[in-house]
Amino acid sequence: MSTAVAIDDVSHYFDEHGFLYRPLKRVGTMVQNLYDDERLRDPTANFDFFKPILESDPVLRKLLEGYPVTVLEINWPWGKFDEYYCWGRSSPFVFKPSLAIYVLAPGSKATCCDRSHKREVKGLSRHPNGTLPLSNESMEPYEKKDIESEFGGVLCVHPLLGHRMPNGVSKFFTVRKK
């Protein structure tokens, strides 16, 4: 699993696999507290609120160095979405090149389709939530990497990566390159 990535290899790993997961209990606690206090939608619960903790992890800090621009209007609570989806390059919510970040509450689960961000994406219809739904059949060729966030953590995905969130609570942000 992507938790054992060396600092110097993180950019290559992300480019190759299309995702990176880091278990961070402090992030999980923050997300859960925001959810319990009904503040997950609060505009102050934004990327900058989480950034110091994200940057305290040397692997995440190295990955985030490549994406220095915070897209402030992307500050969404995100729950479960059991179908495979991607964000896509043409999304009005995701800029090219960018990184989608989910900060996960304890007990959250995700499945990433390893290397699926390298496929051709055409002719998909956008869901009202901004995602591009993907059929199970289109994701069959890709190895599934299940993530079970026991204590919480951070999941970074390439906008074209096929993935799903069958359980949990998270906050979603995007950052992009200059």
Give the total of beta strands. 11
Output the structural class: alpha+beta
Report the CATH architecture: Sandwich
Q: What is the fold-level CATH name, i.e. the topology?
A: Jelly Rolls
Describe this structure in words.
With 178 residues, the protein is an alpha+beta fold. The protein has one domain (7-176): Jelly Rolls. It has 5 helices and 11 strands; from the N terminus they run H-E-H-H-H-E-E-E-E-E-E-H-E-E-E-E. It has helices spanning 10-17, 25-36, 47-56, 58-65, 136-139; strands spanning 19-23, 69-70, 76-78, 81-86, 98-104, 108-113, 132-133, 144-149, 153-157, 163-167, 170-176. The strands form 2 sheets. Strands 1, 2, 3, 5, 9 and 11 form a 6-stranded antiparallel beta sheet that branches. It is globular, with a radius of gyration of 15 Å. This is Phytanoyl-CoA dioxygenase.
Question: Secondary-structure blueprint of this entry?
Answer:
Layout: H1 10-17, E1 19-23, H2 25-36, H3 47-56, H4 58-65, E2 69-70, E3 76-78, E4 81-86, E5 98-104, E6 108-113, E7 132-133, H5 136-139, E8 144-149, E9 153-157, E10 163-167, E11 170-176
